[in-house]
């Protein structure tokens, strides 16, 4: 059974920092492509940051220089360090995994709320 469990969300003032964590189980984590998405009220879910199949990272333009994605394969964890947070970063943040044969399976976590006050 695949599980992605996010933690670390909360309320923070603009300019502050949060570190999101995602604990993965039930997948071959080191072979999986991990990403973070977010969804704000009334908006579509969008990619924030992720690893590519080759292990490099990519970021949405609006978080470049502020957010950093990282992973610990020994712990089956992926992280999103968020600095210089802005009110427009307020959203539900979701952990996403592509895994399995041919990376054909997709799994989502339940999400964690991030609220940035001005």
Describe the structure.
By secondary structure, this protein is an all-beta fold. The chain is 0% helix and 54% strand. It contains no helices and 11 strands. The strands form 2 sheets. Strands 2, 4, 5, 6, 9, 10 and 11 form a 7-stranded mixed beta sheet that branches. A hairpin with a 6-residue loop joins β4 (33-39) and β5 (46-51). The chain is globular, with a radius of gyration of 14 Å. The protein starts with a strand and ends with a strand. The relative contact order is 0.32.
Keywords:
118 residues; mainly beta; seven-stranded mixed beta sheet; four-stranded antiparallel beta sheet; 11 strands
Question: What is the secondary structure topology, with strand pairs?
Answer:
Layout: E1 3-7, E2 10-13, E3 18-25, E4 33-39, E5 46-51, E6 57-59, E7 67-72, E8 77-82, E9 91-99, E10 105-108, E11 112-117
């Amino acid at each position: 059974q695949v599980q992605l469990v996010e933690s670390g969300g909360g309320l923070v003032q603009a300019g502050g920092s949060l570190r999101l964590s995602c604990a993965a189980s039930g997948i071959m984590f080191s072979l999986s492509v991990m990403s973070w998405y977010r969804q704000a009220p009334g908006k579509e879910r969008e990619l924030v940051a992720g690893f590519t199949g080759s292990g490099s990272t990519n970021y949405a333009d609006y978080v470049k220089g502020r957010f950093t994605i990282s992973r610990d394969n020994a712990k089956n964890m992926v992280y999103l360090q968020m600095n210089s947070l802005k009110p427009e970063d307020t959203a539900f943040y979701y952990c996403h995994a592509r895994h399995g044969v041919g990376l054909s399976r997709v799994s989502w976590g339940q999400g964690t709320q991030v609220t940035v006050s001005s």
